[in-house]
Amino acid sequence: MRPQSRGSAPLLVLLVLCNPLTSFVSIQSSTTTSTTSSSNHGQIVLLTDKRGWAKTQGTAGASVYQRPLSPVPKGEMRMAIASMNTEETTYDHISLAGKFSYATKHNYGIKMDFAVPKGFKAGAVWHKLNMIEYLVRTGDYDWIWWIDYDLEDVTDPQNIHMILTADCFPLNAGSMLLRGTPLMLDFLSEVWTCGDVEEGERPSEQDCIRDILEQKLLWKSRAIWIAQTKINAFPDEISCWDNNKKGWAPGDFVAHFPGAWAHLKDKDPYGVMMRKYNEWVE
Prior knowledge:
By secondary structure, the protein is an alpha/beta fold. It has helices at residues 92-106, 127-138, 182-195, 205-215, 217-220, 228-231, 260-263, 269-278, and strands at 12-16, 22-26, 62-66, 79-84, 109-115, 143-147, 162-164, 175-179, 223-225, 254-256. A hairpin with a 5-residue loop joins strand 1 and strand 2 (22-26).
């Protein structure tokens, strides 16, 4: 029998793999409206990888992009979800049905990529920057939510461009809310540049985002960190928590399973977690 949720918020199940991959389940019943694009998205060119070290030009090898299904009333927030999954898993239906159901119910745009562009040089985790840039350049969205598999309505001052969370480290980039403005394209360019190393081990995109925010006041002043449980809660099985030392509890909005392979002695640790917490989805 499915356990009864004791909280008022719906559950969104979030997964991050070591490989570039994500998995996400959401449930919430509500309807909002957003915009239908009139721009020619087929002509969008990705430019934030200015030196071209990752060979980012071109579309994804396989991608689904669902635009909002009806116009947004003037003044209401326009949202898009972006995520990717490059390998087959045992929980694909749970993940994809949850993400697309959530986007459809709330009339958000959603972009889901299943392969990186042909010839892409960087590790697949870097492709998230391509996806974010694409959605920013459409001009259709006020906020883009990147989910490794992880939202909550937020209202913040205009100078805030990034809403982030820590875990037991300063940043977990598995769930981020990013403002869809030209300034965000400048930030993406700096992240690409950070990853452009000719010798030694390339840092992850998460390390680059963290270091840029720590070192440059321009970007640090445009980011805020919120409690991990708001948009990036880890369950008890994965106790890498922020300073609040709180794991996922019934009523929390998302559950995220980064590094499940290191915490569960099972051949399919992510599938085990996805199926367990899917019981809480409403």
